[in-house]
Amino acid sequence: MAHIPTTERDSFGSKIGVIAAAAGSAIGLGNIWRFPYVLGNNGGGAFLIIYLVFVVGIGVPVMISEFIIGRRSQRNPYGAFVKLAPGKPWYLVGIMGILAAFTILSFYSTIAGWTLEYLIEAFSTGFQNMTKSSLNDNLNTFINNGYRPVLWQLIFMFLTGYVVYAGVKNGIEKYTKILMPILLVIIIVLDVNSILLPGAGKGLTFLFKPDFSKINGEVVLEALGQAFFSLSIGMGTLITYGSYIQKKENLGNTAVSVSMADTLIAILAGIAIFPAVFSFGINPEAGPSLVFVTLPLIFEQMTGGYFFAILFFSLLAIAALTSTISVLEVVVAYLSEERNMSRKKATVISAAAISVLGIGCTLSQGPAPQLHILGKSLFDAMDFLSANILLPLGGLFIVLFVGWQLKRLDVLDELSSGGQHKVAFFRVYLIIVRFLAPIAILLVFLNNLGVI
Ligand code: PHE
Predict the structure, then answer these.
(1) Residue 149 placed within a domain
(2) Ligand 1 center to residue 232 CA distance, Å?
(3) Position 4 pLDDT exceeds 60
(4) Do 348 and 161 meet the contact criterion of CB atoms below 8 Å apart?
(5) What is the pLDDT, as a whole number, of residue 281?
(6) What are the tens digits of pLDDT across the range 324-351?
(7) pLDDT at 152 > cutoff 60
(8) How far apart are CA 351 and CA 157, in angstroms?
(9) Ligand 1: which atom is nearest the Cα of residue 234?
(10) How confident is residue 58, by pLDDT bands cut at 50, 70 and 90?
(11) Number of domains forming the structure of the chain
(12) Which atom of ligand 1 is the closest one to the Cα of 262?
């Protein structure tokens, strides 16, 4: 591998900064909004087990691979593949990642906007005197309003751009280091409260007790997609963040810590939600409206609900922001490194372009149902396309790239920071990225296409 110039590239200043930023990316609406309802729709505990297997067996190796590609190349996802495999078509994986940044952020910012609306509502009314049907109406009226959800979405995109614009160390690292500890404290407070509710045990049983009769090919694909989505892998977010990690940091340990933190928060979110859901006798299979209808209903009835509602929606907004910045950073890094734009210009242009697609997603949920692709609303189509297709496909190519394209010694060199760290798991890692992970991802795909 040729000498890599590292001059003038922004980077994370500390180990804690790396973990805060990467965990901040991973921990998001995926953990607190998506994980609980996907688990609820897919049978509870059995889903959790498959999910955990995918996180450990595929997620961690893909994450390590992304860090390797990023730090080795010191580039954005497109530039990274061009630099590490010049003249080969691997750069298409980078392009796919940039595309995925658009699809993810477009629907993600819709929900991120909802969290702001609900945060304000928690402050102002605390959902007082609302019933299940009035909460449902409330959500529908808000979604169908058109201009309010779009306004909140744009405000959220503005906040995201504000942090990204400030840079890697002075923006992303600075804010995630403050926000992530707050997030942890909030979720623990919510968990304690939830577990102490009468009848909480049923919720814990639903979350942890596997019922394997619920499992089929679709559930397995959902679990794989959820693992990729939740860990922020498969589209180059962590290639980009990896390129800002200093040479001395241990990439393997970092990936394990980040994945553990992400999984822990998903489970803690499940513990905050399901015991409360069961305690109030509500159906756990509510779908995407779980946290916007079911939870407010619970807060309305719960002692101290006003306070917990504010905490919960702050938690969602914080979790969303530390993730949206990581997605926007992919596009900004690409534009500023490959298209010679200033960071400022790159931030404004990418945030604006993504917002256009984002507004489409938001409107497709309510006032503009004609925004449909393949029988799904634009919103659902972007969600499905990113989580269940683009990310696993990206992950497949990323492990193949590290397993078969990069030189074994270069991979070892990067993982060990030039021999500074012992890499005890190297052979296992190689076997996974060369064979096990690609085969597993392909099987899940083929099964869902009905090929096997
Ligand atoms: N991991 C984030 C979440 O769980 C979403 C995300 C996906 C962020 C892909 C970046 C890349 O909310």
Answers:
(1) yes
(2) 4
(3) no
(4) yes
(5) 85
(6) 999 999 999 999 999 999 999 999 999 9
(7) yes
(8) 7
(9) 9
(10) very high
(11) 1
(12) 4
Q: Is the CB of 226 under 6 A from ligand 1?
A: no
C-alpha 398/C-alpha 99 separation (Å) is: 15
316 is a domain residue: yes
Domain membership of residue 212 as a residue range: 15-448
- CATH number for the domain harbouring residue 146: 1.20.1740
Coil vs helix vs strand at 113: helix
Angstrom CA distances, 111 to 139, 319, 326, 330, stand at 12, 12, 16, 20
**pLDDT-derived band at 123, boundaries 50, 70, 90:** very high
Quick: pLDDT tens for 154-191.
999 999 999 999 999 999 999 999 999 999 999 999 99
> For a substitution probing ligand 1, which of 39, 108, 232, 263 has the most ligand atoms within 8 Å of its CB?
232
Question: Which ligand 1 atom is at minimum distance from the Cα of 29?
Answer: 12
Instruction: Classify residue 2: in a domain, yes or no.
Output: no
Of all atoms in ligand 1, which is nearest to the CA of residue 231?
1
Candidate from 230, 231, 325 with most ligand 1 atoms within 8 A of CB, to mutate: 230
Torsion-angle region of 146 (φ positive above 0: left; ψ -120 to 50: alpha; else: beta): left
- pTM higher than 0.90, yes or no? yes
Please give the torsion angle defined by the CA atoms of residues 155, 158, 159 and 161, in that order, rounded to the nearest 10 degrees: 160
Which residues, in sequence order, are CB contacts of 287 under 8 Å at separation 6+? Answer: 37, 40, 41
- Distance separating alpha carbons of residues 100 and 126, to the nearest angstrom: 36
Whether the CB of 109 sits within 6 Å of ligand 1? no
Q: For the chain, how far is it from start to end, CA to CA, in angstroms?
A: 41
What separation in angstroms does the CA of 432 have from each of 61, 90, 423? 7, 20, 15
Which of the four pLDDT bands, split at 50, 70 and 90, describes residue 289?
A: confident
Cα(155) to centroid of ligand 1, in Å? Answer: 19
CA of 198 to the centre of ligand 1 (A): 34
* Closest protein CA for atom 10 of ligand 1: 232
Query: Phi and psi of 368, rounded to 5°?
Result: -125, 65
Ligand 1 centroid–CA 55 distance in Å is 14
pLDDT digits (tens, 9 = 90+) for 207-252: 999 989 989 988 998 999 999 999 999 999 999 999 999 999 999 9
Find, among 415, 419, 430, the residue nearest to 70 by Cα.
Answer: 415
For position 286, what pLDDT does the model report? 77
Q: Is residue 167 part of a domain?
A: yes
Nearest CA to ligand 1 atom 8: 232
**Ligand 1 lined by 230 (C-beta under 6 Å):** yes
Q: What is the pLDDT of residues 61-83, one digit of tens each?
A: 999 999 999 999 999 999 999 99
